[in-house]
UniProtKB/TrEMBL annotation, chain A:
Organism: Amphritea japonica ATCC BAA-1530
PROSITE patterns: CBS, CNMP_BINDING_3
Gene3D superfamilies: CBS-domain, Jelly Rolls
Gene Ontology MF, one: [protein-PII] uridylyltransferase activity
Protein name: Cyclic nucleotide-binding protein
Cyclic nucleotide-binding domain: residues covered: 17-115
Keywords carried by this UniProt record: CBS domain
Domain CBS: 155-222, 230-286
Length: 627, 235
């Protein structure tokens, strides 16, 4: 029989998850607890220590660290720690140190396990607590801001804009009056404008530096139109972008000013100084490094850095969107640099072209170990006899180069090296029109790749235009959407697998789940159908979901299910890949159930259930009628 | 009074084990005690607290005992014990105000003699830790003499004494006292708050025993070290 522990039990009952447990259970916990006192500044657990207790802070404050010594979280009275270690083979992954003199209650592992088994609310709390921590920390921590905050948070004032009809003098006066170092030049969109484009668009940017080097130095007349000295068609970024994407973009293009747009309208201009305030992440310099390499061999040597960058982002708790974007930017940079090198070797291109990224890179969802999917848009003046050899050589150079750098050849031969995927602008429009109008199974096979396209080099605007063409065409073709929907149902989530796994507890289950083929890919297929139906021009699955949710076509209350499911499956996949890298194994997308924690297994099952339900909804929404 | 660091406790225990008549008490002595040169990190402690009917060990009696075994790293609540005891003389009403134990509760409680074996077994081989040594050791000694005609003696660590050494000694404190400045309180609750220990309700024997154990861990963490010999702090 235990002696009653009034103080300990009374304390625990005030805090979650204990406040939801029956009194007699908390009384029992209190009787089995152990207590220890730690002086401020002293370690409670070091990395790799064994842990066999759940820790509750009774008084004082405790700091949790990452392995690299960065602060992960700060906890105080009533907070728990150590649950992660208990759930992960009794090893401390995040060391704990007393920030103040602290009294800690320790709840023994056996009891912890029993509580997890008996009380769902308890299990949920201790397992979810890690997520809660992460959310708490990303809003708290300076060094994480760059990773977690949207670019709009860095904007300090409204953009200063001027009409394109203004003179240089006018611009300089206005800039002085407003006290800005850059000004955006706006022009009313022409008569042939797309109907979903804003009435005014950014046609250029003028900076202090331009006034110096393009106006004063050459002694230009101040009544010259501003359009003659501005930088036309400046690189811009969407307001949805993360701060680190802005930094990547500025590094990549060596920009000091970056206009941020919301639906094509400027909402601000980001200056280098806005970025400098933030701690730079060494991984971001990988991009500028890529652009400095002078040969394929040198580029290939950067390959380990990609994996390192990926692992670092995972360890820094970046979400799947950030990681996918960063990996895509890096992949794009490889393509861009290879194209620059190709042009150096082959000479200037005889006609204009646009090099396309397809699939995951276009969606900003690239991870490690992705094959290359690419294509070329050629100017309509393309003449196979005159220009064919050049673009064949160009495509071969890039494709071989990518393969050398770790982006292996596409097994489906969807590459610019395949003459079928080197088409003029007209030909592309024609083939997309054909796919939409005659959605036979073969045409649809490639849809999940070709319907995510992004210009990475050359006349990238052509890619945007082609996208607009496709989106409009698809939106008006219910039969195509129905076929696409049908196609999106072809890959089913592995729910039966979980049923089997639950029954077989002996761990002899040798099967594995391919999280890409059975999880993220069908999810992005499904999201694409909805996005096309509402005419979204977004490429990224999360951004597409934003548009789909805004359009209100999903069943009420279920809007976030898809997002959560996508994020969860993607993160399990990402963490699995990071673990592969860290343990020197070949990176793949297949996860064995024995390598999943109970938490992951349970939530994966739930995420796959969301996918399954959503597929059923898709089937209902687009009934397939065979002609 | 055996209140001296000059006592050779292990030797004294051996002698007592040979001459003691009561077998429960003899078992206690036979367990021996920890040598004075043992580093604090290796010392098995047990924190002990009594609630009594008054402050005079000669006439007042123990009505509740709380104890909890611990060491420098962990206080083990699983092994904590708590007894209510029926006093042989009537309990004074004013003491009820202090510890909140009522006559009715004690009516069904056993006499100390019936649980003595368990109490001694729980503290045997361990160093007893108390806050204010003149209660537990004196009361237990007196209660045993009354029941088995033999007294008891053992070394204790007194957390109040350890606080007093810090706050009631030295030139600065003497000066404070001379100029009539308020001195630091060395009562359990006040001492605990100096170490950032939480507020616990007092005058419950088991809670006070745990409080005392936590206080000793804090005192050692702040002012001694793991290798400090036990003889530095026992009395």
């Amino acid at each position: 029989m235990h002696a009653e522990q009034i103080e300990v039990a009374g304390f625990l009952k005030q805090y979650p998850p204990f406040d939801s447990l029956p009194d007699e259970v908390v009384d029992d916990i209190a009787c089995q607890a152990e207590i220890s006192y730690y002086r401020s500044g002293h370690d409670i657990y070091q990395f790799g220590d064994e842990i066999h207790d759940l820790c509750v802070i009774r008084s004082g404050a405790v700091e949790i660290y990452r392995r690299n010594g960065d602060l992960y979280n700060r906890l105080s009275e009533g907070d728990l720690f150590g649950q992660l270690g208990l759930l992960m083979n009794n090893k401390i992954r995040l060391p704990a140190r007393a920030l103040e003199d602290s009294l800690i209650y320790f709840i023994p592992e056996a009891l912890f396990t029993e509580l997890c088994d008996r009380f769902d609310a308890f299990a949920y709390f201790v397992e979810m607590d890690d997520n809660r921590l992460r959310q708490a920390i990303s809003s708290k921590q300076e060094s994480n801001d760059l990773m977690a905050s949207k670019v709009t948070r860095l904007i300090s004032r409204d953009p200063v804009c001027l009409d394109a009809s203004a003179t240089i003098r006018h611009a300089a006066q206005y800039m002085t009056a407003e006290g800005v170092s850059s000004i955006l030049i706006m022009q009313a969109a022409g008569s042939n404008r797309e109907d979903d484009e804003p009435e005014q668009s950014v046609v250029g940017i003028l900076t202090d530096r331009d006034l110096r080097s393009r106006v004063v130095a050459p002694g230009l007349d101040l009544d010259t139109p501003v359009t003659e000295v501005m930088t036309a068609e400046p690189v811009t970024l969407d307001e949805d972008a993360y701060a680190f994407e802005a930094m990547l973009t500025m590094l990549r293009f060596n920009l000091h000013h970056l206009p941020i747009l919301e639906n094509g309208c400027p909402v601000g201009v980001l200056a280098t100084s806005d970025i400098v305030r933030y701690e730079s992440q060494s991984s971001l310099y990988l991009v500028s490094n890529i652009m400095r390499q002078t040969s394929v061999e040198e580029l290939a040597q950067l390959q380990p850095q990609i994996s390192a960058c990926f692992v670092r982002m995972v360890n820094e708790d970046a979400n799947s969107h950030m990681i996918g974007s960063a990996m895509s930017v890096i992949g794009r940079c490889f393509k861009q640099r290879l194209l620059e090198l190709a042009e150096e070797q082959l000479g200037a291109p005889p006609i204009r072209y646009c090099f396309l990224a397809l699939g995951s890179m276009a969606r900003d969802e690239q991870l490690l170990m992705t094959d290359q999917d690419n294509a070329l848009i050629l100017d309509n003046s393309f003449d196979a006899e005159k220009h064919g050899a050049y673009f064949e050589a160009l495509a071969k150079f890039v494709s071989d180069g990518l393969n050398t750098c770790g982006y292996v050849y596409c097994s489906g031969n969807i590459m610019a090296t395949n003459p079928e995927w080197r088409k003029t602008r007209q030909e592309w429009e024609a083939i997309f029109a054909d796919w939409v109008e005659n959605p036979d199974p073969e045409a649809l096979l490639n849809c999940s790749i070709f319907f995510d396209l992004d210009g990475v080099f050359g006349k990238t605007k052509w890619a945007d235009q082609l996208n607009t063409f496709i989106v409009r065409k698809a939106k008006r073709s219910p039969r195509f959407l129905a076929s696409l929907a049908r196609n999106a149902l072809s890959r089913t989530p592995p729910l039966g697998f979980f049923k089997g796994f639950v029954m077989e507890k002996d761990g002899q289950h040798r099967n594995s789940i391919n999280l890409k083929r059975r999880g993220t890919a069908p999810l992005s297929d499904l999201i694409r159908v909805h996005a096309m139906a509402v005419g979204s021009r977004a490429q990224n699955s999360f951004e597409r979901l934003d548009d789909v949710v805004k359009a209100g076509i999903l069943p009420a209350g279920r809007e976030n299910d898809l997002r959560d499911a996508m994020e969860f499956i993607a993160m399990v996949r990402i963490r699995h890949q990071a673990l592969d890298v860290e343990t020197d194994r070949d990176v793949d997308n297949s996860v064995e159930p024995e390598n999943l924690t109970d938490f992951e297994r349970r939530n994966l099952k739930e995420a796959f259930q969301v996918l399954s339900n959503s597929q059923r909804f898709l089937k209902f929404r687009y009934p397939y009628t065979r002609k | 009074m055996t209140d001296s660091i000059a006592v050779n406790w292990p030797e004294l225990f051996q002698e007592q084990a040979l001459t003691t008549q009561d077998e429960r008490l003899r078992a206690f002595y036979e367990h021996g005690t920890v040598a004075g040169n043992t580093p604090l990190s290796d010392v098995p402690f047990v924190s002990l607290d009594f609630e009594t009917t008054g402050l005079d060990a000669g006439s007042d009696e123990i009505i509740s005992i709380g104890l909890v075994p611990f060491d420098l790293n962990r206080i083990r609540l699983r092994e904590a014990r708590h007894w209510l005891l029926k006093p042989r003389s009537a309990m004074k009403d004013e003491s009820i105000v202090i510890h909140g134990i009522t006559h009715t509760e004690l009516n069904d409680a056993p006499d100390l003699n019936r649980v003595l074996g368990q109490v001694l077994e729980a503290i045997a081989g361990r160093i007893v830790v108390v806050h204010y040594r003149y209660i537990e050791r004196e009361f237990l000694n007196a209660a045993l003499k009354k029941r088995i005609n033999e007294g008891i003696s053992f070394p204790v660590v007194d957390t109040m004494q350890l606080e007093a050494m810090l706050y009631r000694q030295g030139v600065a404190n003497t000066l404070k006292r001379l100029i009539g400045k308020k001195q630091e309180s060395i009562r359990l609750g006040d001492s605990r708050s100096r170490y950032n220990l939480p507020h616990y309700g007092q005058h419950h024997a088991l809670t006070d025993a745990i409080s005392t154990a936590e206080l000793l861990q804090a005192q050692i963490r702040h002012r001694y070290s793991e290798i400090t010999p036990l003889s530095h702090i026992w009395v």
